[in-house]
Design a protein that fits this description.
Length: 63
C-alpha cells in the first residue's frame, strides 16, 4: 500500500511540474492516468481505465 502512495505522489509531483507547460492537455492526462491505473491495479483494464479517466480530466482542464 505504501508503494501505491509513493507512485501517486510521484505522478502528482510530475503533473504539477508540467502543468504550466501542458495546461492540462488530454495526452498528458491520459499518460498520467494510464500510469497510475497500471501501477495500482497491475492489469490492462486498470491501465486503460486510468488512461480514459485521465484523458477526460486533462481535456476538461485544458478548456
Amino acid at each position: 500500500m505504501l508503494k501505491c502512495y509513493t507512485v501517486l505522489l510521484r505522478v502528482a509531483a510530475a503533473a504539477a511540474a508540467c502543468l504550466p507547460l501542458a495546461a492540462g492537455c488530454t495526452l498528458g492526462g491520459a499518460a498520467a492516468g494510464g500510469y497510475v491505473g497500471h501501477e495500482t491495479t497491475h492489469s490492462t483494464a486498470g491501465t486503460v481505465g486510468g488512461a480514459v479517466a485521465g484523458g477526460i480530466i486533462g481535456h476538461e482542464l485544458g478548456k
